[in-house]
């Protein structure tokens, strides 16, 4: 377990700087589209700290796939649940998602669809690589 936390910390620290960059790009697009004119100091602080924490968690939790004793399906569920709860918490704290049943349902559906779409794409590419390796083994 010590190895997991070390890997979590390493991955999280390496990637957490990308969160504020992405947030700045999103804010720039929203500003250009006229969604808002200015941000308060508190909004900026909450936004930057929240998205930095979220990037740290999102990158760090991928260390769960390094734990060989855990089945892949369980790792995927831990990864997905951690991301979901992290995004949901940060979005609600920052006011990026309105409190209410309908916004929560829409957010959840989009998250689940996106998460499984990404996993389906990863699976397809891994499957192609495995098939290529199997063909080489059969030829050799």
Q: How would you portray this structure in words?
A:
The chain has helices at 2-15, 18-32, 41-60, 72-93, 101-139. The protein is built from five helices and no strands. The chain is mainly alpha-helical. The protein starts with a helix and ends with a helix. The mean pLDDT is 92. It folds into two domains: 2-97; 101-140.
Give the secondary structure arrangement, pairings included.
Elements: H1 2-15, H2 18-32, H3 41-60, H4 72-93, H5 101-139
Helix pairs in contact: 1-3, 2-3, 3-4
**What is the percent of helical residues?**
over 70%
> What is the arithmetic mean of pLDDT?
92
Number of helices: 5
User: How many structural domains?
Assistant: 2
What is the rounded distance between the termini? 40 Å
Task: Give the uncertain stretches in residue-range form.
Answer: none
| Computed structural class | mainly alpha
Number of strands: 0
- What percent strand? under 5%
Oligomer: single chain
C-alpha Rg (nearest Å): 19 Å
For the biggest sheet, the summary is: none
Please provide the ordered H/E string of secondary-structure elements: HHHHH
**What overall form do the CA principal axes indicate?**
elongated
